[in-house]
Amino acid sequence: MQTTATASRSDQTRALGLSTVAFTACFAVWTIFSIIGVAIKGELGLTEAQFGLLVATPILTGSVTRLFLGVWTEKYGGRLVFSAQMLLTALATLLLTLAHSYVMYLIAALGIGLAGGSFIIGVAYVSRWYDAGHQGTALGIFGAGNVGAAVTKFVAPFVMVAYGWHGVAYTWAAGLALIGVLFFVLAKDDPELVERRTKGIAAPSLAEQFAPLKNLQVWRFSLYYFFVFGGFVALALWMPHYLIDVYGADVKTAGMAAASFSLSASLFRAYGGHLSDRFGARTVMYWTFGFSLIFLFMLSYPPTDYVIQGKEGPIAFSTKLDFWPFVIMLFGLGFFMSLGKAAIFKHIPVYYPGHVGAVGGLVGMIGGLGGFVLPIVFGAALDLTGIYTSCFAILVGLVVIMLTWMHLSIRAMERAALGKELGTLPTLPELQEVHVPGKTDMPRMLEDWQPENAEFWAERGRRIARRNLWISIPALLLAFSVWMVWSMVVARLPAIGFDFSTSQLFWLAALPGLSGATLRIFYSFMVPIFGGRLWTTLSTASLLVPALGIGYAVQNPDTPYLIFLTLALLCGFGGGNFASSMANIAFFFPKAEKGNALALNAGLGNLGVSVMQFLVPIVITAGVFGAMGGAPQTLTTGGELWMQNAGFVWVPFIVISTVAAWLGMNDIADAKASFREQAVIFGRKHNWLMCVLYTGTFGSFIGYSAGFPLLTKLAFPDINALQYVFLGPLVGALSRAGTGWISDRFGGGRVTFWTFAGMIVATFAVIASLGAGSFGGFFAAFMALFFLTGVGNASTFQMIPAIMGREVPRLMPELDGSALRRQSERESAAIIAFTSAIAAYGAFFIPKAYGSSIAMTGSPVGALWAFLIFYVICLAITWVYYTRRGGLLHDLEHGNRPAAILPKAAQ
Question: Which Gene3D superfamilies is this protein grouped with (predicted)?
């Protein structure tokens, strides 16, 4: 019986050497399209999009098959699976030469993609020959087979010049088939497979192999590999095309330069495995992300011309990365990506020694998908922006996300192991004499917070909670103002000389809703991770970016559409703030006052939309900021507007609110939780049901607010409607702030039911008014809609704590007392924040639905009918799950049961 402990050095070397050679050959075939694809493109006359799909197709199959090939390797052994995979890939490569149409080329490319699955076969096979202390080095050496991409780029251009691209395919197919046969003849079965067969032990089932995939950590590793491997493959495929277009290099020079990147991103993988064994894979990952961020930032900076107004006149200079510095930086990027690839696969055998095939297969699949998705994204970004370096800018954003997630996860693990001592620092000597604990310090962190305790609430809790609420409200008001200011700016852009089409204007109006809703998903979990005080400060300060950006962009009619798209997305910072703000306030108040507190925070925060729509038309008519604000824009009708004031007017208030949040708000110790602890809500059915209901209320409010000015202007062009449109968001915000007590008294479920019934009637009235051409009826019906959305916003949020007060004891009966209360409050806050994130997509879909309906039918009525049908669905959900007799909230709201079913100790 052979085991890793008793396997001879010669057997280990044989397994590693044969696997590395086989993987190198497979990788050379996998990236064959990076060279021959150029010839095929010219032969078939392919567009950029068709060429991108052809190049990416092998990457797709190579990625998806990794999951299954890894499992089969665990079951049948690497010797058999590796040999079969190489022979099938060689056959597909040979068939490529018989293709005569684009579709046939795509089918052959799918078969060639099997070559990419070789990686996980080798990982599962090689890791079984080595102990944990040497797996990193062994897998690093094996992974250096990525150099096959460089082999293709070095050799294939010369073969193609001499024999055409068919000659490359014949040569690569023959070589891979030969290696496949030799591998089957010379390789041995791995020690674990031999031992299993000797003892007659059955291979692990699919369920057993896939069990670890439910761990969030596995998916985090997958995202890392999406960059270090997927980004490597994407750049390896993209660089020849990039170098030819940007630097005018010929195909040989471009292939050689791109090969240098593939070389560094492959050969040094072996060194990365050695470093991971010596210093730890975690340390190597920090090096990878840190240095990659530096290189990518320099590569992403486009050639730029600058003009500075100097003392003696304009000083002009430009920045541009020349060909050889570019190649050197690309080489350095490849070096650190190769270290990262080794470090990730050092983690897997250590964390999941019995599931290397399944876990490694998933990680490899996601990484390979990066190689498929990213070239397509690169092409789309180039088409959209016209900036070649946009591909590197995309990778910069990806690295920032991964580095942040990795660091937070590591810190969470350390805190779990070491406790609060990890973040405790000694008092500085110069402060010890003047600092008196309990007197000279301001209690930023509330260690003991008991809002359900009547005595605590009366003596201390109410005062602190209200202070945090009244600091939160103006911060949220400003967030909504900045989020929705774009709707007012967009409506006036044509009048100040910007030549954008109606479709482009609707896109600009819709994008803040899209980005704001997406950011809310992340903001939903930030307060328990960072604390409400810090996150409110940072998120409020972030509003300065779009506010100042708007002020400068609108002053020049030549500002590119891309800049406006970017600013529209940045305005989403304001939309994201709502999720974190509501989650934060939810922790401060007891259940009996939570509905009203959330209604005040959200309702008066929503008032920012109306404040903006009232204030902006006033401030843009005068030079409020004098010379500092810039010159006015001349209207097409001859008048003047200071459109920049639409952004600048918020700057001083944002600064004040940021300072107030930092100095006056508090964090609650019990509210601290990791993402993992909060992620339990994704398994709660009522989380998703409330997402639907809140989309019907808040999604309607914010979507109507974003689309109302432009819709009114288009439907009734003869009426100066912009002076009235602020009334809609005003009514909706005030109704939310003023009706929270109704839900506290009568029950959020009942109020939500009748709200949706009213919204159905009001939407029908809007449709009828548009058909009759009645502005009065249209305006009145919309005011009713805005009022009802405000009532529904308050009632749906009141439902969530009541629902979870019933569901958490049922789902987690092992909890009692304060633990049950904390879990209920934690899940309620997370659901409140997450539902607000999903519902915020209404700010994107409602304006976009108007635009699509107008483009398809010439009228927005089709979109309104779709909204009405959605309200009918929301009404049915509310009745079936919550308000009917036997529904979750029926007895509670009819006074048959206490307001919460928590044990007395927890109430």
Answer: MFS general substrate transporter like domains
